[in-house]
Amino acid sequence: MSLSSSAIMAPPSDMTFKGGSAPLRAGIIVFPGSNCDRDAGNAWEALGEGEAVYLWHQENDLRGVDVVILPGGFSYGDALRAGAIARFAPIMKEVTRFAEEGGPTLAICNGFQIACEVGLLPGALVRNERMRFVCRHVGLRVETEASMFTNGYRKGEVLSIPVAHGEGRYVCDDATYAELVAEDRIAFRYAPQTGNFVLGADSGEDYNPNGSRDHIAGILGGPQRNILGMMPHPERAMHTELGSANGRPLFEALCAVMNVRH
Amino acid sequence: MRRIPLANYPAVSPAVYREMGLNDSEYALIVETLGREPSYTEIGMYSVMWSEHCGYKYSRPVLKAFAEYRKAQETGALENAGVVPLGDTGYGVVFKMESHNHPSAVEPFQGAATGVGGILRDIFTMGARPVANLNSLRFGPIEGDDPVNIRNRYLFEHVVKGVGDYGNCVGVPTVGGEIYFHPCYNGNPLVNAMSAGIVKTDSIASAKAQGIGNPVLYVGSATGRDGIHGATFASVELTEESQERRPNVQVGDPFTEKLLIEATLEALATGKIVAIQDMGAAGLTCATCEMAAKGGLGMEIDVQLVPRRESGMTAYETMLSESQERMLAVVEKGNEEEVIAVFRKWGLSAAYIGTLNDSGRVVVKDGGVVEADVPAKSLADDCPTYYLDAAEPEYIAKVQNADFSVLSEPEDYGTVLLRLLSSPSIASKRWVWEQYDQMVQTQTEMLPGRGDAAVLSIREADGRRIALTTDCNPRFCYLDPYVGAQIAVAEAARNLSCVGATPKATTDCLNFPSPEKPSGFWQFTQAVNGMAAACDALKAPVVSGNVSFYNETPDGAIYPTPTVGMVGVFDDGVIPVGQGFQNDGDLIYLIRPTDWEGEHGIGGSDYLSLIHGRDEGKPPRLDLAAEAKVQLVTRQAIAKNLLHSAHDCSDGGAAVALAESCLAGNKGAEIRLAIADYGDQKWSAILFGEATARILVTVKEGVNQNALLDLAESAGIEALFLGQVKSNDRFDAAGLIDLPLSALRNAFEGAIPRIMGK
Questions:
Q1: What is the pTM of this model?
Q2: What is the pLDDT of residue B3?
Q3: Which residue among B97, B342, B437, B726 is least packed, with the fewest CB closer than 10 Å?
Q4: ipTM value
Q5: What is the pLDDT of residues B278-287, one digit of tens each?
Q6: CATH number belonging to domain A5-261
Q7: How far, in Å, are A152, B85, B672 from residue B717 at the CA level?
Q8: Nearest by CB: B434 against A38, A43, A136
């Protein structure tokens, strides 16, 4: 495995902070049908201290990147099932090893579907309840601050971040659900702008875009809560001109953590 | 003379070529050109290339009204005509619109999907990365349980699904468009797909074949039997038997298209591709003949080298297939491997199927046998053109002279407003656009429903902003095709101006009934001439377009529908403005010409159609000079940061526009109207009349307000005070309408989901 991931496991004592010499490198995994790869790369580079490294699905090497992003899209056309074929890509072996060793891994939309397919995260994403693709800004309640992705938010805060998917309904068995709750691994839930809803009692018809179990929009996994899978697209919420900048703190938090570790 | 085999094909007879759409004199011309009887394959090739769809045999003489088109045609520069430069960034916008009406009538999902795929290929074949899609869709009424309406609902649902499925997968945002319902589209929906791309202006790819001995490369999907004679199918009216033509409809694969976009742009970047063209209508026939003709060269290909997905395909089938996601490229000899490696990397098949020569002929072989040997120019450029008889239809005089003075005023204007807001043509299309990815590529700054036009900030071009829209009110075009087409252009330009962009260029999709009937051809000629004059006046020349005739069924013809697609560019630093009211206390003004008298009335309005069931009257008067001034003042005010919102008054009139601005901004409004400001017309005309050249703006009281009034005054137009934005839940229009926003929202937002079942 690459040097940087062992560095992640054991941060060196001579930490460098923001403005350090080497840019933080995010490896964006590019499948032939990825279509949010550039958006993810642009979001990372928009922070001013990041560099996007595009990694082709047939590569066998993560080239020492600091962070891995599995972007949105339709990896291989996804006629069978979203992400079902992507799991067999050569690069996924390396991504899996990286993530299992604690490497920060952000899996967005189709990336989330792939992460579930390869078993990096539990559960699965199935066809939206209304059987239609849905693209809109949704309310997203921050359910935990305890992760390298969400520590820039306040718990309970409601973000506005877009979704764009046809298969985003999160499902899992009861045991998995209990585990996610017990381990505080639910990162985001769909929510009305007020943030108020009653779990179990509230159908979420107006704000849950896909019928996900208990409005789950994103979950954490990995040995150090280092994997985040989420259906909404934080990379599309980087500038107010695009309708929201609420995705920016997520990337900033990730950057800050990496800077400390560098 | 070379031996042309006729084995395995039906004998060539008048019945055969007539069935393929050629008439006797055209056939005689082919015999004369070739100096012999054509082979079956050659007849097939001629019939698709000389169809109206590819050869524009009826429309070409009329389209010369478009100045840029005429210039481009005369200089042979048609393909590069449509580039709109983005300031001095070195980048430009290319854009085009195309119809896929007939395929969508029989197979809505695939018809719409391949319509999107086809227009995207037109864009990236120029070396441009597609950045936005728009769609202008028209269907028959979708409410209720009438079998026709149930079918319309099915067509609507599946066209939308097809558009979404394709666009979402290829990663090009669908940022705007329009959807309209009217009985004239029963059984004949219109699917007009528009696409825009960004290209480096110094490296626009060409379709001109060059370099004798250069190899011809086929890339993309394998060729199947789908879509054979698709172009011919598009050139006849729809009938009962049209459903049997479902095999004529192509099948789309957006994943392959996505690969083709990336691979083509990467391959073009190697600089080793001399010429490239997509295979759309008339497939391999069109690509070989047009590329050879443009370069003044010949091309010899062997269909046995063409990747085919079915065995036993004849040369005829191979040449006429309209299988999707295919491109033809001419590559520099000696650099084949570099180009082919790019396509292979993306998992696409790439095969050499022939070479260029100096014969000027396209020769098609099937192994050792010559199947076709025809002059390229003859097919590509020499389609006979006809100037058909045009006669004003009888209905025109009747509808234009209709008398509305006897119509009584509605008892409750609020009820009328709610009915208008909940009529599917006016109601929110959120149900549709939420099925489209509007944001991928993260350049969309004005999402659907937020402003009068879509706005994108183009990353490659230093964030320069562009605006896009499509427009056409077919009722106006039915009542007066000349004025109606002008209003379509004016409204498109107005929508761009309302967000702050300067209109730059136009593309069109001219959807008409059969030109072979004098009434249809008259409508077409009138509309083209009207559109050309309006584009000149508003400085947005037509730079590309498409003609779709034969939009009629045994039950009747569509209303003439010259859909306008328009692109605008923002001056550097101008911040786009939306249509929603923003702040409590902002003042609402109506920017309009000073000589508004006589401009109102309810002729051709949605109000007249919906409430009184009459598609009659004259469309509103359009003064192009005044329209230009109103738009200019709006743009100037936006550039000076004076406005908080801008929205044009069109379908449903001022009352609907005000309601839409309330809903978009979630703000109430208090409107004061004085009947004297409107020439003492009836309230119905003041509220719901659809006069042109009117823009609703909001401005903060004080300095900004005065600056706006100064701008209007110096331009010689009027800024009429209408009222104030309120931070409450009421829409109060002069005491005539007093409704809570929730009622407006329920009508406007709920209508289509209620019809479609959520």
A1: 0.94
A2: 46
A3: B726
A4: 0.92
A5: 998 889 999 9
A6: 3.40.50.880
A7: 52, 31, 20
A8: A136
